Each structure stands twice: as C-alpha cells, then as structure tokens.
C-alpha cells in the first residue's frame, strides 16, 4: 500500500462518549421520558418540544466535544 502512496490509519475504538448523536439522543430521551407521553399525539408533541430545545450553539458544542469542529 505504501508503495502506491497510500497510508494505513487505524480508527480509534468506538466510544459513545465521543459520538455527538449519542449525546443528543441522551438529552432527547430524557426530555421525552420526563414528558410522560402515553399516546401518539402527546408523544409527537413531546418530541417536537424536545427538539426545539436544542440551540445551534448547543449542537456546535456537541460537535466540538467530539472533535469534529475546532471553533
């Protein structure tokens, strides 16, 4: 591979602590559970409300924490 100019890189072990989607889902699930929705309509409203609570700044912090963004 190196003779062809390619480099072999090893990926780090999977860590949910460094996966931004895991961090988002944890907050989302907590919010939906605390709403205690028991039917489809209230569940949909609880999910919409939970998603609306995520600010662009918060999402950027998740990405920075996981190492996907520097600023």
Question: Would you give an account of this structure?
Answer:
- The protein has one domain (16-66).
- 55% of the residues lie in helices and 0% in strands.
- The protein contains 3 helices and no strands.
- The longest helix is centred in the middle third of the chain and has 16 residues, at 20-35.
- It is elongated.
- The two termini are 34 Å apart.
- The model has no long low-confidence stretch (mean pLDDT 86).
- Residues 3-43 form the Tc1-like transposase DDE domain.
- InterPro entries: RNaseH_sf, Tc1-like_DDE_dom.
- Pfam families: DDE_3.
- This is Transposase.
Throw out a few tags for this protein.
single chain; 71 residues; mainly alpha; 3 helices; 0% strand; RNaseH_sf; Tc1-like_DDE_dom
Helix amount:
40-55%
The averaged pLDDT comes out at 86
Give the domain tally: 1
**Global shape:** elongated
Major beta sheet, specifics?
A: none
Oligomer: single chain
What is the count of β-strands?
Answer: 0
Number of helices: 3
**Helix-strand pattern:** HHH
CA-to-CA gap between the ends? 34 Å
Helical/strand content category? mainly alpha
Note the beta-strand portion. Answer: under 5%
- Which consecutive residue ranges, at least 5 long each, have pLDDT under 50? none
Radius of gyration: 18 Å
